[in-house]
Amino acid sequence: MKKFDLNIEKILEDWEMHHAIREIIANALDEQLLTKTDDIVIAKNGNSWIIRDFGRGLKYSHLTQKENQEKLSSTNVIGKFGIGLKDALATFDRREAIVSVKSRYGQISIEKSPKQDFQDISTLHAIIEDPVDAHFIGTEFELKGVADDEVDTAKKLFLKFSGEEVIETTMQGQVVKRHGNHGNIYINGVKVSEEENFLFSYNITRLSAPIKKAINRERSNVGRGAYTDSVKKILLNSKQKEIAETLAKDLTNINRGTAHDELSWIDVQEHSVKILNQTGKYLFITSFEAMQHPDMIDHARNSGHEIITIPDNLKDKIQGVRDLSGNPIIDITQFVENYNDSFEFNFVDPDKLSNEERVVYQFTPKILDLFGRVPKKVKEIKISSTMRKDFFDETETLGCWDQKTSSIILARKTLKSLPDYSGTLIHELIHAKTGHDSISRAFENSLTEKIGDLCSKILGNSGKDITKAELIDSILEEMDRVWGEDGLGGEPDEYAWLLENFNITEEDDVQWQLILQHSMNDLYDEDLEDEELMTFLEDDQSVIQFLQEFLGKYKNSSASYVNRD
């Protein structure tokens, strides 16, 4: 038997029994890690608690070390073999627990003995005895006089036994699902601090200089300043959707002042948005944007997007930014752009327009002449029965310049009046020519209206208050242009030819002749006796509608000016 003075200079008065047990468990876990051996055992045996590893075995010489070089060179170990072990033995003695250690190198117990050469001073000594089993594997600590709850408390200081679940492991450490009402901070798996307002727990495995400096002899109550940067780095290197969703949900609490502390870091907010954006359909908007554009929010929800409300400063950070997969983050601007790109127009063939619509549509060449030279980039002018919605104004647009297809697209509804159609067409021609976006919706509407009024005046037809006389004159002018010397010449021989080339039936022509005669008070007596005919001829609205359709058939036939044979 040999006695070995532990030379403990200062007793850790604040250490409880569970702190001492923590050191024994820490050293056992480290040995398991370093030797890649079986899991450690923590078990009750009668009135004793057994803590055993299956490593290389403890030597009494380890008690002389202040720091273990092997552990210092390893990044993942917990204990500090020497200091921590001696502090634990001293605490067991002070707390009146009986401890014995067994390995293939011997048995170790502790007792108070006089210090060598100073018989009046008693200090804590390790009692070294020969091994009972020279083939014993590992190291076994037997603790007597230790309450079960002290062991349970000690185990909870380790991530391995805490019941907390690791969500993701990064190069800097692990994000851990919080278990209970607070977050825990672990360093290499041992708890060093608690955070009441953290969203997660964290296990820091890459130790920064501030952390190394802050890990004191007690290894507890490490200040936040030491590990804040490490926690940030762990979060900024995370990629799991669960982490991002949890952070994003807490974003909505920022304006209420109830968000967790991680959300006070703007770079963490931005990173959570980047993760979410690549893992699903989300729309990131501010609370003000949500109030301003309810139709857009409804459309986004109906199209499968989940709405995430973000603070204003985060909106500025993510604008134009791409997520971790390289895709643009869907803020309100990007959502509208995506909507516009994916929208499918329902184009209408001009031949399928109604007669009233053709009356307006036939002015297209003249409107283009008024504008001047049509921009070369405009390849086509199309009519669509569906138009993209202007989410910022909550209205359906009347026209747009589609740069991707080099087309001006006009809403079919603009063909209800010449001012609407001409104003919208010239408006979009200006967009195509200049490349400028809209200034404001009020300005746009006013500009379109003024352009339309101007076109109507120049073209001599407002499209609103046209009279029968004006329509009759227009038809006569058009007929003269078609059948005159510069046109086809003469008159058609058959109504079938009129119907084929001008879509004019015999009934159309007869009705036109009656309207013309009625306008000149030149009807036959038998026609004047036809009550149904007279009711029609005296109904200005019905007559004007017919004349508009009749005129439209002539005007839309200009492309058919070909010889009959």
Automatic annotation (TrEMBL):
InterPro entries: HATPase_C_sf, MPN635_N. Signal peptide: none annotated. It holds the Pfam family MPN635_N. Residues 150-240 form the MPN635 N-terminal domain. Gene3D superfamilies: Histidine kinase-like ATPase, C-terminal domain (3.30.565.10). It comes from the Bacteria. Transmembrane segments: none annotated. This is MPN635 N-terminal domain-containing protein. It comes from Methylomicrobium album BG8.
